[in-house]
Amino acid sequence: MIQRTEILSVKHTTRRAGLAEYVYGYIKNLLLDGRFDVSVAIPVDTLASELDVSRQPVMDALKRLSLEGFVVIQPQVGCHVREYHPEEVSDFFRLFAEGEALIAELLVERADRSDIAMLSAISSQIGELRGSNAPAEEISQQYRQLNRKLHFEMRRASRSVPVAEVVESLGDRSDFFIAASRKPLFADRLEAAHAEHEAIIAAVRNKDPESARAVMKQHILHIEERIRGATAAKRYAG
Question: Please, what are the domains in the chain?
Fold first, then answer.
């Protein structure tokens, strides 16, 4: 399940960070990448063995992830990826869209030339993925990493630490819901998402807060639309 290169990276990184914090972050990344099937218990012993740690830091991490709404722990049964009702997912994205729209508005007010240059450079990297011949799952993973980097830089450039911290945590939940769809939605939406990113950056460059807010809000709500479509297709197929 976990590649050896990833294991070595874990061991190297734990020298610099607390063991508990790193195990938590690593398992969380597996969840955000959709590496666990909702119908199968998360393999605590396997994770502990592969990460060369005891069960305790793995269980501590899962308890923390449970409090954050990513997993459900059932005594004597095991730990599973948490499932959400479609209406709950829709409600979440309405909230997330408003948070990111505020970030976009603050970005227009506070971003400088170096911020805009950084955003443009990352967006260009995303644009290059459009010509990739890699499998959809690989493109989705690459896009997710670049997309999170782009939105992180937008939040940083908004220069509002409390707002940025809250919206960043919502970004984790967004990736979690995308992973739960079991579809390469990032790859499927690459063209449209890139165009929306470019439109947001253009609005920032042109000092147009209304356009930045509107495009960002739709950018987030379009994700929910794709998840809803994937969920409906899965139900129909079943």
Answer: 4-81 (1.10.10.10), 86-237 (1.20.120.530)
